[in-house]
């Protein structure tokens, strides 16, 4: 079976095989660098490395292959998530150098391992914080171990990972996600004068237990306000919140992260209400913009993201510009404006009277649909298959045919009023941004094999505009299929371990 309608034209995925978290996003020597968790051995095995895409403009990408892979005993079961920092003037040529920080994962069960400890929380695992540098942003040099299990506080279990490093007040800071020995999620912070020698600073706990593990902590510093983002595992599914098994969000802190030891988990805000979103990372680009990218997928789902033998699995969201809503203090997410440059043919969907239905059939499977000035209830439907709805005080998405859902069920949240909606459609990836980016849904949609996209809008709205979007990724994925580009060093490293 052919899957051309599922191809991605402007979303990043691994050319082949499995992708999860975005890693180490930065702007380095004029190019954006987006690393990602890459498992070349999927679905048989789980061996994480950092794959890499680079771009001058967040839109036109080049696949650079595998940048960091397991090569030392301390990362032999996976180069896990982390970040990069740009060290000004530190490269051999006097230019900038890129420093990566990541967690080296080691699973080392012993004969007495308790089989009920499936997560290796208390023994049989090592998490090492590791660094390495690169002058060209692609090839990394020798690795140095910065923190080993013995360096974490006693109340931490063996789950400690995903370093995020930043500079503030003239020194370096690292926040790590952790699980305590009594299975509570928390963050731990370290300080360093040189980025190499780290000393424990403080833990950040929630007031009351809030999940058993916090993964991928990240920071946002906007308009004089600080936000701590993390991905808590183990939140109970509630009527209107936390519908994924693992969730991702942030807390707007009343003070700086460096002054925080306790946060109010009741103020945790979910980034995204869709089925396919987890482990996002943030970074600040050279223009001072805070940008968020999420993994458009999640672990342990009861729905599939690679149906019918698709040989790649999951993608990243488009880069989202974060802005602070001065009224609520919350963060708004919108596609970076660079994406507008991919817009092609423009169609206005005009209903004759209020409540009437506007329909457009767009060539291709990539589209950007904007509905402005909405009053009242309505729907926006793609191919009579995927539907965004605002009905009876709820905003949500539903699948009208079982096949395209690949096991996903309807999702919705309560909402007083819907004013505007933007829907990015890219083959099997759909991102919905509502009310200026206050509410977001990211979903995979395994649509039928039709060459055109039918967009039907029943909202009473001031304006409904749809654009085709240029496919800038298909060629990149085709080129990247060359075996030496897809995972150049993997075989070489396999016997180094
Ligand atoms: C989040 C995560 C991270 C870890 C990585 C491993 O999705 O579990 O905590 O570093 O994925 O791939």
Entry summary:
With 497 residues, this protein is mainly beta.
How is this structure best described in words?
It is a single chain. The strands form seven sheets. The chain has a six-stranded antiparallel sheet with strand order 24-35-26-31-32-33, with no helix packed on it. The protein is globular and about 70 Å long. The longest helix has 6 residues, at 474-479. Helix content is 4%, strand content 48%. It folds into two domains: 18-335, Tachylectin-2, Chain A; 343-475, Exo-inulinase, domain 1 (Jelly Rolls, Sandwich), CATH 2.60.120. The model is unreliable at 489-497 (pLDDT under 50). It is mainly beta and 497 residues long. It has helices spanning 402-405, 474-479, 483-486, 490-494; strands at 17-28, 31-39, 48-55, 62-68, 79-87, 97-107, 125-134, 144-147, 156-168, 171-180, 185-192, 199-206, 213-222, 225-233, 249-252, 262-263, 269-270, 278-284, 290-296, 312-313, 315-316, 320-324, 331-335, 343-348, 358-363, 366-375, 378-382, 386-391, 394-399, 411-414, 421-426, 429-434, 439-444, 452-457, 460-469. The structure holds beta-D-fructofuranose. Residues 20-21, 37, 48, 80-81, 103, 161-162, 215-216, 278-279 line the site of beta-D-fructofuranose.
Jot down its keywords:
single chain; 497 residues; mainly beta; Tachylectin-2, Chain A; Jelly Rolls; 2 domains; six-stranded antiparallel sheet; 4 helices; 35 strands; globular; binds beta-D-fructofuranose
Bulk shape: globular
Number of domains: 2
What's the CATH topology name of the largest domain? Tachylectin-2, Chain A
By DSSP (H or I, 4+ residues per run), the number of helices equals: 4
> What helical percentage do the residues reach?
under 10%
Distance between the termini: 39 Å
Ligands present: beta-D-fructofuranose
Secondary structural class: mainly beta
């Amino acid at each position: 079976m052919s899957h051309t309608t599922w191809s991605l034209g402007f979303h990043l995925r691994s050319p082949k095989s499995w992708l999860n978290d975005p890693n180490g996003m930065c702007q380095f020597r004029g190019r954006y660098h987006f690393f990602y968790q890459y498992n070349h051995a999927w679905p048989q095995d789980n061996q994480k490395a950092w794959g890499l895409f680079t771009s001058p403009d967040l839109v036109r990408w080049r696949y650079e292959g595998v940048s960091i892979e397991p090569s030392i005993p301390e990362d032999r079961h996976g180069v896990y998530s982390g970040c990069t920092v740009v060290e000004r003037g530190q490269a051999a040529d006097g230019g900038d150098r890129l420093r990566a920080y990541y967690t080296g994962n080691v699973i080392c069960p012993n004969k007495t391992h308790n089989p009920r400890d499936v997560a290796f929380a208390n023994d049989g695992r090592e998490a090492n914080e590791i660094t390495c540098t690169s002058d060209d942003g692609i090839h990394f040099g020798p690795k140095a171990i910065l923190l080993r299990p013995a360096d974490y506080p006693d109340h931490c279990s063996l789950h400690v990972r995903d370093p995020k490093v930043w500079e503030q007040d003239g020194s370096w800071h690292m926040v790590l996600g952790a699980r305590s020995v009594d299975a509570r999620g928390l963050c731990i912070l370290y300080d360093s004068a040189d980025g190499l020698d780290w000393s424990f600073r403080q833990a950040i706990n929630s007031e009351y237990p809030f999940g058993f593990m916090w993964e991928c902590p990240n920071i946002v510093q906007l308009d004089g306000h600080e936000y701590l983002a993390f991905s808590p595992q183990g939140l109970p599914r509630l009527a209107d919140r936390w519908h994924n098994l693992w969730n991702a969000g942030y807390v707007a802190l009343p003070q700086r992260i460096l002054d925080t030891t306790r946060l109010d988990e009741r103020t945790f805000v979910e980034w995204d209400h869709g089925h396919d979103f987890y482990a996002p990372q943030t970074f600040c680009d050279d223009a001072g913009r805070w940008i968020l990218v999420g993994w458009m997928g999640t672990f342990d789902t009861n729905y599939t993201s690679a149906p019918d033998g698709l040989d790649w699995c999951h993608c990243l969201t488009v880069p989202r510009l974060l802005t602070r809503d001065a009224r609520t203090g919350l963060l708004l997410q919108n596609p970076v404006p660079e994406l507008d440059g991919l817009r092609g043919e423009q169609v206005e969907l005009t209903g004759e009277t209020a409540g009437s239905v506007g329909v457009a059939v767009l060539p291709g499977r990539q589209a950007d649909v904007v509905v402005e000035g909405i009053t009242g209830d309505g729907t926006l439907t793609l191919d009579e298959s995927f539907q965004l709805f605002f009905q009876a005080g709820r905003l949500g998405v539903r699948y009208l045919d079982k096949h395209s859902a690949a096991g996903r069920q309807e999702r919705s949240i309560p909402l007083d009023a819907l004013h505007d909606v933007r829907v990015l459609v890219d083959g099997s990836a759909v991102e919905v941004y509502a009310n200026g980016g206050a509410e977001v849904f990211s979903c995979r949609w395994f649509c039928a094999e039709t060459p055109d996209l039918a967009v039907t809008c029943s909202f009473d709205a001031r304006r409904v505009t749809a654009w085709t979007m240029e496919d800038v990724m298909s060629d990149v994925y085709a080129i990247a299929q060359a075996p030496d580009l897809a995972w150049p060093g993997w075989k070489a490293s396999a016997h180094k371990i």
